[in-house]
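protien #1 (seq + structre)
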Amino acid sequence: MDAILLQILNGLDKGSAYALIALGLTLIFGTLGVVNFAHGALFMIGAFCAVTLQRILTISYETVDDSRTDFLGNPMTVETPYVQAWFGPETGATIIDWSVPLAILFAIPIMLLVGFVMERGLIKHFYKRPHADQILVTFGLAIVLQEIIKYFYGANPIPTPAPDVFSGSFDFGVLLGFDPGAIIYPYWRLVYFVFAMAVISGVFAFLQFTTFGMVVRAGMADRETVGLLGIDIDKRFTIMFGIAAGVAGLAGVMYTPINAPNYHMGMDFLVLSFVVVVVGGMGSLPGAVLAGFLLGILESFASMTAVIDLIPGINQIIIYLVAIIVLLTRPRGLMGRKGVMEE
């Protein structure tokens, strides 16, 4: 039982990332009808927002420390971050330590701007084009963004640690009555799961309980009728594109302590996230979230040593096998809507 619970927990953080990215993908497809293969790049950009803020906060200047000397007896120079000089050593160190959570505030306006520019500058020209054209142009955009990140940040992963207070592990098993040390789980992975649930709940509440969200949902169901009522639905859909970009970006920001950011991380998650969307059902927001967590947990179980010894390589293909089974039995996915991509 403890092994089962541990694998469920292990699947939650990756499932959270899948669910957040798939949620943004479904928002874009459901509102604009666009298959956005650049959505994984938005996840990557969010991650590098955290990297950028960390670098900004650690910009430093050299000072001479007379109390310390090198082996020749000369005073040593030390690097002092400007943040520590402005706010004091302790406060400055705390700000640097909390750079990843603070990157949420840094990333939100950047991701909204990136989403707005992407939609107004490129995506809007492909609304009425075939899905194949949309896939090609957005996939090309993803490659361009990936190479830009590679040029400025290099090809190697960049470690971006979580705050020290979350650097340890939590003995989850003790709460459930297991022996101490039976289920040890990193604090930050729990934080990421709680964060993902908060974002997902916020998006659903926004769509369900606000006037803006109700209009958007009506536009998703019947765009022409809403337009005939004098509502500028295109403007609202552009805002939704920005929100979807923000969701992907925030998912990337908070994932950086779990997986060190690199230039191809967007592509790594993109294909799997599209599988998640298809399994959940094209156009279904609850389906995207459900499939994200389900496939994340299944991938975790498939990564167990005993399972890999029994079926080598199963952890690499389990998601695709599940997708095949689901689509053979339910062609529209788990919660797909009739008529979506069936013309």
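ok now protien #2
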Amino acid sequence: MWQTIKLKTRKVTCFQTGCVLFNPALSSCRSRLNASREVAPVSLPNCRLIKGIETGSEDIDILPNGLAFISSGLKYPGIKSFAPDKPGEIFLMDLNEDNPRAVELRISRGFDLASFNPHGISTYIDRDDTVYLFVVNHPHQKSTVELFKFVEDDNSLVHLKTIRHDLLTSVNDVVAMGPDSFYATNDHYFSDFLLMFLEMFLGLTWSNVVYYSPKEVKEVASGFYSANGINISPDRKYIYIADVLDHNVYVMEKHANWSLTHVKTLQLDTLVDNLSVDPHTGDIWIGCHPNGMKLFYYDPENLPASEVLRIQNILSEQPVVTRVYSDNGSVLQGSSVASIYQGKLLIGTVFHRALYCHL
């Protein structure tokens, strides 16, 4: 049975400031990773693992017609990979089918498939119904955003261009704003692995959000421990940002010049990863890591758990947070995303498998 979670009010106090100044960095880091947290199981009765997805399903984006894109095969510094030498893939599932299966999408010639390392994804449907897929890519541990056109007739992606910029240093996720524009989260200030680890260990709040278009690129939000998932409200007035190491979701108002202003922060007790938004209800679905220490320090005898939260009425005075699913890792390890379509739920992971459920 789903569990409704009582929210905690977040207040910055002198005590917290003192902790930052005087507590050992290790203790603070363990707290951000929820190193001692365990969750009770919450099962769903009608779920099955998706055949063919064995090495991750880090992000999922579902079109209004029920076609779901799934990024797979992420190799991320410090995170387990079950196929470190295998290139990443993009899968497609048609959730209108009675027994949907994952089909790998072909990618057009000329694109460097050997170094393909997909992370966050986002779709955009243009006025002529062209579907564009934005994919965060980490070839050779760099950060780019790849822009593809989806060709449904032959299940393929046509690569249009690779986007690089000095402000896109350590991109985690994107949300498309147009056929060639987006917001992107940088989960670290540094791109070097050792400096990234030091940044996390010291609790530096140097992570940010960037707006990109061919005409303008600028920072629009900053001060995060590690900005991760990002998405937009159905009315396109608000941007939602997950700070995975601060255990919260930010609500930001979007303005005509693409700048963002803070509206509210919802504090949770888990490491929030990717955000999906139900286009009909506005509910936010989140793939979470109950214990980040288990994710970063992989032990097959003590597996990283999975957790899915649903947030209803986030703009209200009393949002409702429900734990829809949780597992100790015996079924699903390291959940990173949860996406909904007409009573069907897809749960993805950083490096493990993917789950398909009927709610």
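The first strand starts at residue 3 and ends at 5.
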